[in-house]
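Hi everyone,

Forwarding the result from last night's run.
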Amino acid sequence: MAHRNLLFTVAYEMLGSAADAEDVLQETWLRWVKVDLAGVEDRRAYLVRITTRQALNRLRTLRRRKEAYVGQWLPEPLLTAPDVAEDVELADSLSMAMMLVLERLSPTERAVFVLREVFDVGYDEIAAAVDRTPAAVHQIAHRARRHVEADRPRGPVSPRAARAAVESFRRALETGDPQVLLDVLAPQVVLVSDGGGVKRAALRPIVGAENLARFYLGGRTGAFGTTVTSEPTVVNGQPALVMHRDGELDGVMAFRVEDGLITGLYYVRNPQKLTRVTSETPLTLR
């Protein structure tokens, strides 16, 4: 229990699924209770090793599942305590934008990157966790870092600037003012929506501020014959919105903010990914 939040976060950052991360923790526990603790010098390192191996096994299974996924796939939103956003580096590593960048890594590259760059685990410990030599882990870490740096969002944005941008977006939806919306959206903003084949969602990303303005303000009351409302929350260490349609939970929208403008919107509508949004206590990760 002393290391539970750490282990959960390692698994979640590797898998992009809170439900699967919980399953990994259960598998880790089942193995842990059978360990002779007298022979364990560093319990934290040993638990991280077990968790990483279990997450790697599950990640390979998830990859096959994602290949058959209907439409765009997004990580499962993770409610986090507001103080997580104050740790800019941690919040950046958990953001939807970064989680999607990590999806492009191989399973081993992702494990090495998460353990080294996010949690500062030593190369020897990582080598034991992924069954590689420390020298090989050095090379994998360098390669993964190069891939991530090529695709990651430009520098972390301050929590205050992110909140301001999200609040402007929310106000635009409430008032139906297209200019307020256009003022906060970057010209080449991208919307990715995930309905999982259960809820209506765009099968491909929608690109461009004007296209998004038409999509959202047109659908605010007319396109689906419903009224959409929103309330602020914190998801993956970043300001987000919980969206309701006619009073019912419709989805969670996360954002990517750069230079004060929204450059990415990530709308998760798949009901299987929303079960924790209203029932779980926000997680404090460190």
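The radius of gyration is 20 Å.

Cheers,
N.
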